[in-house]
Predict the 3D structure of the following.
Amino acid sequence: MTRRYLPGATIGLMGSGQLGRMFSIAARRMGYRVEVFSPEKDTPAGQFADREVTAAYENESAVRDFAKGLDLLTFEFENIPRQTIEWCSAECEVRPGSSILHIAQNRLREKDFLSGAGIPVAPYRAVHSASELATALEEIKAPAILKSAAFGYDGKGQRLIDRAEELGEIWRERPGDELILERAIDFEKELSVIVARGQDGTMATFPVCENLHRNHILDITVVPARVSVKIEESGADLARTIAEKMGLVGLLAVEMFLQAGGNLLVNELAPRPHNSGHWTIEGCATSQFEQHVRAVCGLPLGSTEILRPSAMANLLGDLWDPGEPDWAGALEIEGLHLHLYGKKHPRPRRKMGHLTALASTPEKAIEAVLRAREALERPTE
Ligand SMILES: Nc1ncnc2c1ncn2[C@@H]1O[C@H](COP(=O)(O)OP(=O)(O)O)[C@@H](O)[C@H]1O
Ligand SMILES: [Mg+2]
């Protein structure tokens, strides 16, 4: 039977960054009480929650006390220690379930799960020693990418290997203990599909997103993706198949590479709202954050119909280098929406906010969002 959590229930959130902030806004707007847990104070999510709890994920009594007061717990990111999730599961309902987080926390487990389920992925090998690295490179062939298996995000813990001669130095500077070597894919485009699945197995996919990265960090998302209907359908099918095989209750973002010839390879999974889905706040009938609430609460999923072509541009901390960005200059542009995450310190590469532009075509939406970001780069007098 579907266990429903209706408005008025208390939802707990592990993690307190921008994804949690936008989740909290959606959930509170729908009448839920939101409590967030993380090791930090005055966080992006905490600023919009009913209650912000500050304690370490390893602090068992704090974690259990937090979970005891909740009807339901969910996550804004997957890198929460397994033990923490188990403590919570003993006290309240946890969605998505801990087995899904366990898979998504580690790139090797994720790739093993995907290839075991018959989902196409880039050739990869597990690497635990210098000799395994040499063998893996022989089998996979350069160029290849060496990644830490755990705790990587926004390109952290990744290294491109062009030539076998570099191996000695690369092994000394390896980005972690457990590693994965993947073939560097010569892709035509990067795409992502966000799928929601309810406890009763119903699913809804958002329109396929086209993603442009800069220095391994998402820079621009544009929707609709400029791909054929056939590719849109295969992308959505892949996402639905993965969600089904995982037994997901919640939201799952599936990052993919589109190769010349139309082949899709799955790159990465994120069982939560995703940066490439931020445009849905204004551009889609239901935002990814509202859909997350609906899916984990056992409510009917909302329509994922696109309202207007949309483009999203991330705002990284580097933007603040010359001084305070020109907010008014950017907001003069028609169809432009500003989101700032309430972070105090604009460090380089740190995601501080994003812009979304809606327009009559994807190209015009990209043009507007880039023009707005350029306006921001001119500091106010
Ligand atoms: N095997 C690969 N081939 C080509 N590009 C890759 C590959 N793996 C990662 N990249 C590039 O690096 C970006 C970030 O890598 P990803 O595996 O998604 O890690 P994360 O997003 O967790 O940092 C990808 O979106 C892509 O642009
Ligand atoms: Mg990624």
